[in-house]
Amino acid sequence: MRLNLSALICLIPAVLSIPFEGFTKRPNTCPKTPVNATRYDAKLPDPFMFANGRPVKTLSDFACRQREVSELFQTFELGAKPGNPDSVFGSISGPNLTVTVCVHGRTVSFTPTIAYPANGTAPHPAIIALGGLTIPAPSGVAIIIYNNDDIGAQLDQSSRDQGKFFELYPELGANGAMVAWAWGISRILDVLETLPEANINTKKIAVTGCSRNGKGALVAGALDSRIALTIPQESGSGGTACWRLSDYENHNASTQTASEIVQENVWFATQFDDFANTTVDMLPIDHHMLAGLVAPRGLLVIDNIGYEWLGPWSSYGCMKTAHRIFQALGVSDHLGYSMSPSHLHCSFPSNQGPELQAFVDKFLFDKISDTNFFNPAGNITFDDAQWVDWSTPHLR
Ligand SMILES: *[C@@H]1O[C@H](CO)[C@@H](O)[C@H](O)[C@H]1NC(C)=O
Ligand SMILES: *[C@@H]1O[C@H](CO)[C@@H](O)[C@H](O)[C@H]1NC(C)=O
Ligand SMILES: *[C@@H]1O[C@H](CO)[C@@H](O)[C@H](O)[C@H]1NC(C)=O
Ligand SMILES: *[C@@H]1O[C@H](CO)[C@@H](O)[C@H](O)[C@H]1NC(C)=O
Ligand SMILES: *[C@@H]1O[C@H](CO)[C@@H](O)[C@H](O)[C@H]1NC(C)=O
Ligand SMILES: *[C@@H]1O[C@H](CO)[C@@H](O)[C@H](O)[C@H]1NC(C)=O
């Protein structure tokens, strides 16, 4: 019965207008990306130079560069995030938001839950939490719990190609799980945009997650410009840490590297193995540029110095370099960095509460708040000169 209904739903023409998030629709005024964009670079690659060597001089160049960087991430690391499905439908019943997506006659449904705030006025801002909420729920904000494992499984290597995304797109079986999760979040937004009874303000959406799901939160925020605020928590290597820096940090400490991560799980596309197994220095990207895809939107990075495996130095240096991108756009205070002294992984120290609230106030409530902070813990320092050989322009 349910299947028949879904099949019927799939025959109804798409009624939604869904912004295209894939990379094939790059404006033709943007420079063309070379067929082979790989290039040896032991330092952090220049976010302000196109893959063809042309410099980024203006804000509109930078918009093109972001398209290119998104394409490069999808090509080399994540796998492709598909654009518009044939149709997307949604309904809400109590806390259950059912999202039904149809592609080429195939259908999947998934059901995130919405917890509405005791306070505040509808439509509410919302935080979409991958796998469960690990930061305190701010007052007045709805919490949407998203079971990302259901969309792209992440048990271990056996999870390759498993999950609802892959039922819908069997031809994308080499994709990483994270791009599948990001795709699912975009579909939640599609539904919320056309479902006024859900009472969610889709212009005021944040995404968050911790650890592996923090990596996923960053990818989701990077690949959908409708997300106002991205909050990766203790996301480590493959998240807010840079591959090149994690390799370096691993010389002194036991830090997760690309070569280890591709053995552990299926977060990345299979084509990333080539780089992970040989050298990440051939990648035309690193994760300062993933964070740069979020700009000029809000990005609050929550880190914990206590776990060498997460690469705290790598994450700090990577985000310090990403900060240059926000500076170039004149929105230095849209990237906040908050690292705490050692504590239990994915617990949230209360002294980071004010920093979280400042970002929530600015990006979910349009309040004036001071988000101009960049706070490492311990004695962490980062030698820019060793890792960055480009300068930061002022883009207009
Ligand atoms: C791509 O270009 C790089 C740098 O020029 C070169 O080392 C690499 O072999 C090329 N790869 C392919 C597949 O042509
Ligand atoms: C929401 O979903 C849960 C789990 O499937 C179910 O038990 C509950 O009855 C649903 N609530 C409503 C109001 O639909
Ligand atoms: C509701 O708002 C009031 C006033 O802003 C605040 O004191 C209270 O803690 C809020 N309650 C909840 C549940 O967020
Ligand atoms: C690793 O240790 C060396 C020598 O002790 C030091 O110079 C270097 O800065 C350290 N690197 C990191 C990333 O901690
Ligand atoms: C990468 O290395 C692992 C472990 O040695 C191996 O199983 C895998 O096939 C390699 N992948 C590629 C693309 O070289
Ligand atoms: C910072 O450096 C000082 C002096 O080297 C050392 O005593 C202290 O333990 C360090 N603090 C942290 C949190 O690593």
Structure characterization notes:
The chain contains 13 helices and eleven strands. By secondary structure, the chain is α/β, with parallel strands linked by helices. The relative contact order is 0.13. The protein has a domain at 59-85 and 115-149 and 200-387: 3-Layer(aba) Sandwich (Rossmann fold), CATH 3.40.50.1820. It has helices at residues 2-11, 59-78, 148-151, 164-168, 177-193, 212-223, 243-249, 258-264, 272-277, 287-292, 312-328, 353-365, 384-387; strands spanning 87-93, 96-103, 106-110, 113-115, 124-130, 142-146, 200-210, 229-233, 298-304, 335-340, 374-375. Helix 5 crosses helix 6 (212-223) and helix 7 packs antiparallel against helix 11 (312-328). The N and C termini lie far apart (56 Å). Residues 13-24 have low confidence and may be disordered. The strands form two sheets. An eight-stranded mixed β-sheet has the order 4-6-5-7-8-9-10-11, with helices on both faces. A three-stranded antiparallel β-sheet has the order 1-2-3, with helices on both faces. This is (4-O-methyl)-D-glucuronate--lignin esterase. Its EC number is 3.1.1.117. GO terms for molecular function: carboxylic ester hydrolase activity. Residues 99-330 form the 4-O-methyl-glucuronoyl methylesterase-like domain. Residues 1-17 form the signal peptide.
